[in-house]
Design goal:
The complex is a heterodimer. Chain A has two domains: about 90 residues, no CATH class; about 230 residues, MetI-like (MetI-like fold), CATH 1.10.3720.10. Chain A is about 70% helix and about 0% strand. Chain A has 14 helices and two strands; from the N terminus they run ααββαααααααααααα. Chain A has a two-stranded antiparallel ribbon. Chain B folds into two domains: about 55 residues, no CATH class; about 200 residues, MetI-like (MetI-like fold). Chain B has 13 helices and three strands. Chain B starts with a helix and ends in a 9-residue tail after the last helix. Classes of the chains: A mainly alpha, B mainly alpha. At the A-B interface, α1, α6, α7, α8 and α9 of A face α5, α6, α11, α12 and α13 of B.
Amino acid sequence: MISYFIRRFLLIIPTFIGITLITFLILQVVPGGPLEMELMRIKTGGVSGEVNTSVSGRGSVNIPESALKEMKEFYGFDKPIFVRYTDWLGNLVRFNFGKSYSYAEPVWDVISSRFKVSIYFGFISFILTYLICIPLGVMKAVKSGSKFDFLSSFLVFLGYSTPGWAFGAFMLIIFGGGSFLNVFPLGGFRSEDFDSMNFFQQVFDQLHHTILPVIAYVIGNFAMLTILTKNSVIENLSQDYVKTAFAKGLPEKRVIYYHALRNSLIPITTGIGNFLGLILAGSIMIEKVFNIQGMGLLAFNSIINRDYPITMGILVISSVLMLVGNILSDMIYAWADPRIRFK
Amino acid sequence: MAEEKQNRKQISVSLLKKRWRKFKTIKRGYYSFLIIVFLYLISFILPLFIGRSALIVKYNDNYYSPIFTYHAASEFNQNIPGEANYRLLKKQFSEENGNNWVLLPVYSFGPNENLLDETEGNPPHPPSLKHIMGTDSSCRDVFARIAYGFNISISFALSVTLFAFLIGIIIGALQGFFGGVVDIILHRIIEIWATLPFLYVIIIISSLLVPNFFLLCLIMTLFSWIGITYYVRGEFYREKAKDYVSAAVAMGAPTRNLIFKHILPNSLTPIISFAPFAIVGNITALVSLDFLGFGLPPPTPSWGQLIEQGMINIEYWWLVAFPLAIQFLTLIAIVFIGEAVREAFDPKVYARLR
């Protein structure tokens, strides 16, 4: 099995090259890139003060050949596309992500400053999701068909038919101090005067900013995980070994919570590996709704600003996390279920 | 031979019928299905119920039906530029008390109509009796926009699901049927494709090319066929080992028939039960993209675009609450359908001791 996982890790390399190559090509080939945007900005007179060129007619600016060449060089567009890609890849291997166009800082510095925020929300919601969904799923399975099962199904349907960000937007309207209640802040990671608060105020402020986004995150994964748990428990309860356990006279509690539950949790463990990516990468949608300056919003803004080094940097990080997460899931699966043998 | 063929047909029909009957017994799903289908059909003739153009105008003993034809305001002696305003015309005619009359749709505001001249104060306006869901920041009627957005959302999700299933089924079938090298090569490609951060790449593409309906469908399709291949591949691996396939091979059935005529109909169950949830996912994706500003181009009536306006200033709660509520109701109905379809097509009965 070790050789299987070594093979899997080696396969990350071609997959990774495939992913980055596709995105790189899309970014470079399709019109509307940073160079066009910059030219447009100059032509419409955004920064015309510096570029002192002949203004003809109604504000159209002729950019001299030398300046155009310089700009092309700055954005790297003077070389053929595959040379650009291999250059980028070569730098990446030396852990050089390049320099952001819009922040004028190394990409790694920009991204790593956002990590903290995304991990904070991601980790709390990850733990909470599991703490809520697994017991709920087990209860629903054990009391299948009861009033509790029926009523909690409403929550599950709510989760299925509302994306987390939409629920977040709805909560903001109600609690964000617009037309109704003013209970929670409009978003963000902390208040602006966080540093000048005393400890208790800081804790309160942090919690105050945490609750709504975390609910939105939890809603996003709630339904799937609960139902997965429920189905898995139900399936196990109908197995022969459960019948045997009952037949030999074990009390119901022990059969369900000791024998059946252990086996039911196996499929749920496989999801854990993939959460690595979710925790770190943050959700574009939820971070946009709550204006949380994490990885997701950074990714979104980098696309709008055509800040390609950042766009590619985030792609690299999130896809590596995804690929490693997949393998990690399989490892956890093999560890949790000794019957599984990968070859 | 002919008789045998007919027999086989009857058997397969009756299986489908059995499932359909089972589906009908699950009331929640069945009624949701009827409602959604009814509303979707209605949404194709929506201008009859919601819209700016009058159904019939009687003017100076002539009948006009502006819902089908364009009439300039001057034709009705109205003193405004461009197309006639039938709401004002109706008011004018009833004040004149003459023989002229106008038959308006039940809700006489269009989705893309700027109502700045007929409203007081600055847009967006909160809900009122006249505009039951208020107006948006370009002073367009929110209810009309949401109603027209329904058709677009469902049509979009249906087309993406259809095309994604076509691609997914073909590729999954190839993988499962041929196995070996074909499977390995396709699997590598799929792994690359599946690891691409889907929303992220779609945003990148649609920020560079401003997409129209078909282009956006195409982009979404390109990224949503992957999930279906897993199901089809697994089913094909399972089915291909069964005796009826060996029998068909022994009788010399060509590969094409093996795949599409023999194995595929027997592996459709998980695909069909997956479809409603794929539709839910695609509606959500469209709303998300519209919300981010990378969906369908303005002035297409869209739910996500209203939510975007509302999130800019959360005092405009009606711009967020109404589209979200309609989206929620639509999605929950489809989830109910999906639940019932799964129950009917893929029943899992577990015997429990206690």
